[in-house]
């Protein structure tokens, strides 16, 4: 059992919690909590850490799952945990490695392209909602929030394991590739001509979603085949990015559903 | 100019930032930032506070608006501010005082009933989104998050000033009153028979939205005329409360919109 916060492994875990660079160099991320660890694709799980108390209570489940966890004293676990009330279990998981080709080869793709999205909670909520709405893949500009940051991972509620996604070094080139695959690309934009529900989303569809404060970059919005707007009442100037994405994704889901 | 953090007014402001009880006893709340102060209904503004630097830069605008602000040294302003990078202006504003009758007397009401919603950010996002979706009023059970807390106020993006709302001591009695006014009440529920988009929302409509983790309380869900479900793909078990509310509100908006 590790009982000291100056242990080398503990230091490494802390780096993986806090530093995007450390995660990317090691090609891993951390998932915390029973559900997030148990739902993880087993072959991606590199290492499981538990607190002493967690081990006492859950030894059997861990064994059944084939996990041989490293045990940390409760104090040390609290020290490496990213949450206020740690559940006592976390895992080091190998990062996902989808390709654009995989994401595009599906039938009737339903894609989100996130451009410079910054809020970790928003990103996580978008992943979770996207899974529910039947989205087939999420593309992100390189300057989006790090999806592997602990807060985002938590707020995906497990969708991180199931939703294909990819960071694009060149988002505009990526959008061109999406279009070349016959997917129609819509920008969610205040100046859209048609309301979002006036379009037909039966065939391959992608939506461009912009930054929380500034919306879509002009040059990115101009890559779209069409702009659509979400009609708004009152004096509201814009919607939260996750909310706007929700409205669009669930309209696709609604149109594609066999009633 | 107030230059000491032990000044009585400064102490009062800090209480109003931090304590729901202090806000309710005084019948006021705080709004921070240029936009939130300038958008406030002028007759509700009790007092405006600015930092010394803000005053220097914006003396004219404040005068034009008829505000006679109390000036705090920059250090003292930072001390009372709830934000990491204070803009330098905040106002003490009289709490809203809508009645259920006012909210129900509108034509074709479109109402949200929030039951035990706990997350300040969720509540604020729901207010902002509700205004955009044409919601006519929001009812909240007494045990919901305090809508007047600074984080919620900020995330409403001004909708707090425009969206009629009311806390209900007895949420079930409140729902009965809503029904007596001819409004059809739907519970968003995983066990709903119909998908949410199979209902007709042209007439008075209310949605019951539950707690983030536990959903609707059974006894509250049972007050509904009908349960509707939001069809979900993948392994998602539930949606974020603000996301679920968004899907429902924008379906009403979509159905009621003249294309």
TrEMBL record, chains A, B:
Keywords: Methyltransferase, Transferase. Coiled coil: none annotated. Signal peptide: none annotated. It comes from the Bacteria. InterPro entries: Alpha/beta_knot_MTases, MRM3-like_sub_bind, Ribosomal_eL30-like_sf, rRNA_Methyltransferase, rRNA_MeTrfase_TrmH, SpoU_MeTrfase, SpoU_subst-bd, tRNA_m1G_MTases_N. GO terms for molecular function: RNA binding; RNA methyltransferase activity. One of its GO terms (cellular component) is cytoplasm. Gene3D superfamilies: 3.30.1330.30, 3.40.1280.10. Residues 30-99 form the RNA 2-O ribose methyltransferase substrate binding domain. One of its GO terms (biological process) is RNA processing. Belongs to the class IV-like SAM-binding methyltransferase superfamily. RNA methyltransferase TrmH family. This is TrmH family RNA methyltransferase.
């Amino acid at each position: 059992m590790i009982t000291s916060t100056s242990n080398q492994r503990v230091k490494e875990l802390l780096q993986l919690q806090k530093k995007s660079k450390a995660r990317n160099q090691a090609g891993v991320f951390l998932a915390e909590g029973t559900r997030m660890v148990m739902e993880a694709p087993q072959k991606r799980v590199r290492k499981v850490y538990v607190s002493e108390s967690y081990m006492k209570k859950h030894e059997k489940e861990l064994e059944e799952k084939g996990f041989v966890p490293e045990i940390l004293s409760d104090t040390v676990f609290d020290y490496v945990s990213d949450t206020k009330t740690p559940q006592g279990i976390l895992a080091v998981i190998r990062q996902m490695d989808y390709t654009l080709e995989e994401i595009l080869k599906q039938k009737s793709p339903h894609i989100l392209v996130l451009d410079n999205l910054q809020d970790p909670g928003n990103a996580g909520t978008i992943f979770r909602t996207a899974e529910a709405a039947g989205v087939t893949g999420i593309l992100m500009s390189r300057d989006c929030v790090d999806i592997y940051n602990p807060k985002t991972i938590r707020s995906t509620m497990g969708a991180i394991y199931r939703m294909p996604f990819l960071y694009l070094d060149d988002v505009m080139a990526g959008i061109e590739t999406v279009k070349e695959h016959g997917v129609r690309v819509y920008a969610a934009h205040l100046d859209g001509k048609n309301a979002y529900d006036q379009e037909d989303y039966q065939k391959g569809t992608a939506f461009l979603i912009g930054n929380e404060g500034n919306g879509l970059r002009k040059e990115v919005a101009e890559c779209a085949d069409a702009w659509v707007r979400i009609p708004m009442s009152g004096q509201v100037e814009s919607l939260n990015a996750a909310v706007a994405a929700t409205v669009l994704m669930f309209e696709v889901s609604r149109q594609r559903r066999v009633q």
